[in-house]
Design a protein that fits this description.
alpha+beta; Chitinase A, domain 3; Thrombin, subunit H; 2 domains; 5-stranded antiparallel β-sheet; 4-stranded antiparallel β-sheet; 2 helices; 17% helix
Amino acid sequence: MKTLTACLILLTISIPFLLSCSAETVVKGGDTVKIHYTGKMEDGTVFDSSRDREPFELTLGSGSTIPGFENGIIGMALGDTKTITIPPEEAYGPRRDDLVMTISKDEFPSDITPSVGQQLQMRHPSGNVMNVTITDVMQDSVTLDANHALAGKTLIFEVELMEIK
């Protein structure tokens, strides 16, 4: 009977300890993590990857990356890999027609020859600087688009959690 009691006491002490040892640390808000990722469009086109460089480091909740990306990393454990699909609303937002404008070539600085795909910065009347891309060049006008290049797109990220700080 003494042996049985001793075994039960040992099990009572050991089980919580063993359970705590096997519990994995998972990512939560406020954690700083390092990840490798590959970002793709729905058609499989890769638009960015960290695989050729150091892992990407971010602190969750800092606002340094798109919300859907941060939300997708929460709950991952060290070494986990995951596919995160992010709709436009949780990425760079919907494409907005009000951010596309056509201006006269006369409004361009004389040292710039506009060409499709060229990226420029312009000052908004509010004083903010906007990044724009030239999407069309006509004889007398130029069309500028201030939408982010990934606005309106569903993004797919293959993510591997490398470190939790």
